[in-house]
Design goal:
One of its GO terms (molecular function) is ATP hydrolysis activity. Pfam families: ABC_tran. Keywords: ATP-binding, Nucleotide-binding, Translocase, Transport. This protein is of the alpha/beta class and about 260 residues long. The protein has seven helices and ten strands. It folds into two domains: about 190 residues, P-loop containing nucleotide triphosphate hydrolases (Rossmann fold); about 70 residues, no CATH class. A hairpin with a 4-residue loop joins strand 1 and strand 2. Helix 3 crosses helix 4 and helix 6 runs antiparallel to helix 7. Bound molecules: adenosine-5'-triphosphate. The site of adenosine-5'-triphosphate has 13 residues, from strand 2 and helix 1.
Length: about 260
């Protein structure tokens, strides 16, 4: 690298996605350009169907880009890899393994059993589940299961944590607790986080930056740096102002989706 040259961390260049089925071709989005710096917490916000999950899956390497390129520290992303950890809305844990073994499972072959257990215990402490390491998944609440999924992703030491509506299935109270915990984890681990949500308030509460997507055609309609000091209470005037601003940006997009759905 030449002196003065900035190494881009996560870079999406002119990315597009078209799904092809037997009957038709469907372009979800095109021309997505995004540069994300290391340690940034970036939320992708947008109406249902604009392609948030598809975009995240492409960064995960689970979906291929139809156009453009996605690279992490200069390496093109084509397949899933340990440099990217994924947390889904449903935690997809192994019910036949206890909490700790769920976390050590992907570490098999990478370290000794004792090292893996110690490693898992470190992350279980971080997500405040140390007392539950011997429990089975069905014995945990939804919020606790999601914490196991976060610990499992972090234990792989990814460069980027990809989170697809991770708290979407939780009740309001648990979601608030998880927000606070995720903020602590992010500050402690300094991970880069790409977070998909359709909650404006969630995006404002958590993010350094909010990328707002529109739909049909899918595209970025705003890219907002959030410099409101944390913690960001809902009653904070700056939060309320930003919430209004994003709501008005999204209103037209949401109406577009509703109109099309009602006409179908
Ligand atoms: N494998 C697939 N084949 C065909 N179409 C797909 C496929 N996956 C997603 N789509 C379509 O792509 C569009 C974007 O889907 P995606 O799930 O990425 O949207 P989203 O913004 O995450 O929506 P939501 O907020 O409802 O989860 C939708 O119209 C969806 O039906």
């Amino acid at each position: 690298m030449n002196e003065g040259e900035v190494l881009l961390f996560l870079q999406l260049k002119q990315v597009g996605k078209t799904f092809t089925t037997e009957e038709k071709q469907f372009q979800v989005f095109s021309n997505i350009d995004l540069d994300i710096t290391e340690n940034q917490f970036v939320s992708i916000l947008g109406p249902s169907g604009c392609g948030k999950s598809t975009l995240l899956s492409m960064v995960a390497g689970l979906e291929e880009a139809s156009e453009g390129t996605i690279s992490l520290e200069g390496s093109l992303i084509k397949t899933p890899g340990p440099d990217r950890g994924m947390v889904f809305q449903q935690p997809s844990l192994f019910p036949w393994l206890n909490v700790r073994d769920n976390i050590t499972f992907p570490l098999k072959g990478k370290m000794t059993k004792q090292e893996a257990n110690d490693h898992a215990d470190h992350f279980l402490k971080m997500v405040q589940l140390s007392r539950f390491k011997e429990n089975y998944i069905f014995e945990l609440s939804g919020g606790m299961q999601q914490r196991v999924a976060i610990a499992r992703a972090l234990a792989m030491d990814p460069k980027v944590l990809l989170m697809d509506e991770p708290f979407g299935a939780l009740d309001e109270q648990t979601r608030h607790i998880m927000h606070d915990e995720l903020m602590k984890i992010w500050q402690e681990t300094q991970k880069t986080i790409l977070f998909v949500t359709h909650s404006i308030n969630e995006a404002i509460k958590l993010s350094d930056r909010i990328v707002v997507m529109g739909t049909r055609p899918g595209r970025i309609i705003a890219d907002i740096n959030v410099d409101i000091p944390r913690p960001r209470e809902r009653s904070n005037l700056e939060v309320i102002e930003l919430e209004k601003e994003i709501m008005s940006l999204l209103e037209g997009e949401i109406n577009k989706v509703l109109k099309e759905e009602l006409n179908q």
